[in-house]
Each structure stands twice: as C-alpha cells, then as structure tokens.
Design goal:
disordered N terminus, 10 strands, Rossmann fold, 19 helices, alpha/beta, five-stranded parallel β-sheet
Length: 423
C-alpha cells in the first residue's frame, strides 16, 4: 500500500461546484489516488474548465485502490463513484488515475467492474485512463504488469490511455518496462517506500499530458472509419486469438478481417484452410477491394523459392485490387536457432523492399524483445521473455506467442494510435 503525502487536505469535490450539485451542461470527472491530489494542487480543475468549458471535479484519496479505501476520505474508487454519481451522470469526460496501490485481488477484474459502474452512469462520456509512472524498485515489476493490463484493455473497455510514465521520462520510455529505482529527472529517491525511486511529483507534466490528450481526442472523434484486412500464417492466427480484429475496429472504426493459415507461405498452402496467401487474396478479393489498411504477416515459413520475388508479386496483386490502401508488413520475430539466419536474411528483404514496394514495417522482433534489438540479426535460440524453448522445431528458441505485444505494436503503427494511446 502506498501512503499518501502527509499534511494535505482531504479530497476536493469540484472547482466552483458544491458537493452533490449536478453540473448544468456536462463536465469533467477525475477519479484517482494521491497522484490525483497532485493534479489538484497543480490547478488541473481550472485548466479543464478553461479548455472544455464545463465544471470539473477531482476525487482523490491517497493510498486507495479501486476496491480499497485510502487514508483521507476513506473511500474506495467504487465508493466514490456512488457518492459522486449525480455529477458523473452529466459528465462528458471521465479520467481515471488508479492502479498504483496494488491491493485488488485482480486488478483486471476490478478495472472492468469500475468501468461498468461508470458507464452505467455516463455511457455518453469519453473515457481516459492514466498509466502508472512510479518507479520504487520493489513495486516496479508489478506496476509494469499493471500497465500492460491498462493498455491491453483500452479497446475492450472503451477508454484511451494517457501516459504518466512518458510524461516524466519522455516519449521513448516504455511503460511496460518501468526501470526499478530510477529517480525522476533531477530528483532524489523518495523516502519512506522501502527502496530507491519515486512516486509523487511531475504534476504539471501530467496535467499537460492530460490536456493534450483531450485536444487530440476532439480531433479523433471526427475521423472516418477505416476497414482493415490482415493476411498471414500462424502468427496471424495468434493475433486472431488475441482479438486483434475487435481492437482494430475499436481504433479505426471500420470492420476488420484476419485471414490466416498456419504453416503457409506466400506461395504454399498451410494446414487449416489449405490456401496459400496468393489463393486467399483471390478468395477475399471483394473485402480487400474495400480495405483502407492492409497488414501482411508472412515470411516465417521459409518455403518460397525466392521470398523477394514472391513478396513483390503478392504486393502487385494486392495493389491491383486495393491501390489506395495503406500497406504494412510485419517482420519476423521467431528465434529457432536452426532458422534464425534465414529469418534475419528475410527481415533484411522486408526492410530493404519497404520503400520500393510501398509499405511500412511493423517489428514483431522489437515488440517481443524491445526497441534496442536488431531484426536483421536475430539471436539464434534466444527464448521469448518468460518463455521456454518451443518443442517441435528442431532447435532452441520460439516461434509462437507474445501476441498481445504484437497487437500493441500494430495498433501503435496504424492511423488513430494517438486516439487510443496504444503503447
């Protein structure tokens, strides 16, 4: 449990609005813990009123979680929603800053319960969730895992993510890999938390990130719906299991279709529908013709006589059907030792041909191992983080898995990424 900053006032209700009073025409409701108190001290209520034009209320209780009361008003987030339901019902924007106090039996289940409770009161509101930016060494791994849940659930629960971690450490910082004990820039370790690192502070930076996200959201709400087609092998099957089609629909607004066949290549059929990628393109011609975004996840199965020639022919066929679509190709992230050299060579082809063939590359290899790795030099036999060797491939390493990480990388590369803040 994280203690609240000492010597501060209890939770405020709103700027210029008495507790329980219904805002006349919408408003902004912020629900959080001690970080939300910092936003109040920074004057975020007034800033929200100036930018959005309605009343604002910040409900905070230092040390609380979704299900557990804090140290001041002694209300859990769920209890505060009940107390503030008259204001919430009329709110047009709801911002949630919770998850730092690791008390829930299941954070994901509690998050779902909170969102359901809020959306029953304010189904018309825009929702935002602030990720965790604290760095205390002992809790950083748990916070990294919670950030994954926050980002993974954005599409299904219907909110956009605002990154406190990036507002503190910069746009390239990775909220899924919080560095244990890293002090905030220019700060010393915050005493009283059992280890190096920080929790509180950088309130002005987070306020700015929130206000910027609200500006972007206003633009995003006007964007047209985009239809997506994804063509691939067993990796595409994994993305289907991760429900990427639903996430694509949530982000892009249009329908999405994932065509997969495990074991197939561009030219050779796989083991399920027994169709090559070429054949699936012909089968799906009508859907492809109306697609605005086309994503290709092929190359892992090294069957083509010439991968470069097959890739070129596939793109020519697709572009003859959907010439105005935006194209993406996913690089190879598998690491089986006996095939890694061939996959590295194929990745070189994927990257070298991108400009000429007219597509952007999305890196599965980096999605799994981090931005510092080199897809042109896959490390043979290197296991995916937290996984063991995958049997049946005649060597150490992995082929399948880490689909949520790849889904996030895909969403981050596509139009509208700024609207859901996919990591």
């Amino acid at each position: 449990m994280i203690a609240f900053l000492t010597g501060v006032a209890p939770a405020i209700t709103s700027a210029g609005t008495a507790s329980g009073e219904v805002p006349p025409g919408g408003g902004t409701y912020v629900l959080g813990d001690s970080i939300a108190y910092g936003l109040s001290v920074d004057g975020l209520q007034a800033k929200l009123q100036t930018q959005l034009g309605g009343p604002a209320r910040i409900s905070f209780d230092g040390g609380r979680s979704i299900t557990t009361p804090g140290n001041q008003i002694k209300k859990s987030a769920l209890q505060s929603v009940i107390d503030d339901q008259a204001f919430i019902t009329k709110a047009s924007t709801i911002i949630i800053e919770l998850g730092m106090n690791q008390q829930e039996a299941s954070f994901a289940s509690s998050q779902q319960q909170l969102m359901q409770q809020l959306k029953e009161l304010a189904p018309q509101a825009r929702y935002f969730w602030v990720d965790i930016g604290a760095t205390i060494a002992a809790q950083a791994p748990g916070w990294s895992e919670r950030n994954k849940i926050i980002y993974n659930n954005a599409a299904s629960l219907g909110y956009r993510v605002i990154s406190r971690y990036k507002s503190i450490f910069g746009a390239e910082a990775d909220p899924f890999q919080i560095k244990p004990g890293q002090n905030f820039p220019g700060w010393n370790t915050e005493a009283g938390y059992g280890g190096p690192g920080n929790i509180h502070g950088f309130d002005a930076e987070l306020s700015k990130a929130i206000l910027d996200a609200l500006k972007v959201a206003k633009t995003c709400d006007k964007k047209p719906a985009l239809t997506t087609y994804l063509l691939g092998d067993s990796i595409a099957y994994g993305l289907s299991k991760d429900k990427l089609d639903g996430k694509l629909k949530s982000q892009l607004g249009g329908i999405a279709k994932i065509s997969f066949d495990a074991g197939r290549s561009i030219t050779s059929p796989g083991l399920q529908i027994n169709k090559s990628a070429f054949e699936s393109v012909e089968i799906d011609r009508d859907f492809i013709a109306q697609s605005d975004v086309i994503i290709i996840a092929l190359g892992t199965n090294q069957i083509e006589a010439s991968f470069a020639d097959s890739q070129r022919l596939l793109l020519q066929k697709l572009k003859s059907i959907a010439p105005r679509a935006k194209y993406y190709w996913i690089d190879i992230g598998a690491t089986i030792a006996t095939q890694a050299a061939g996959w590295s060579a194929r990745n070189k082809t994927i990257y070298d041909s991108a400009e000429q063939l007219g597509y952007s590359v999305i890196s599965r290899y980096k999605a799994i191992f981090g931005n510092a790795v080199d897809p042109l030099h896959i490390v043979p036999g290197l296991n995916f983080p937290g996984e063991t060797n995958e049997p049946g491939f005649n060597g150490p390493g992995n082929v399948h898995g880490q689909y949520a990480s790849l889904s996030r990388a895909i969403l981050a590369a596509l139009p509208g990424a700024e609207c859901v803040s996919a990591k």
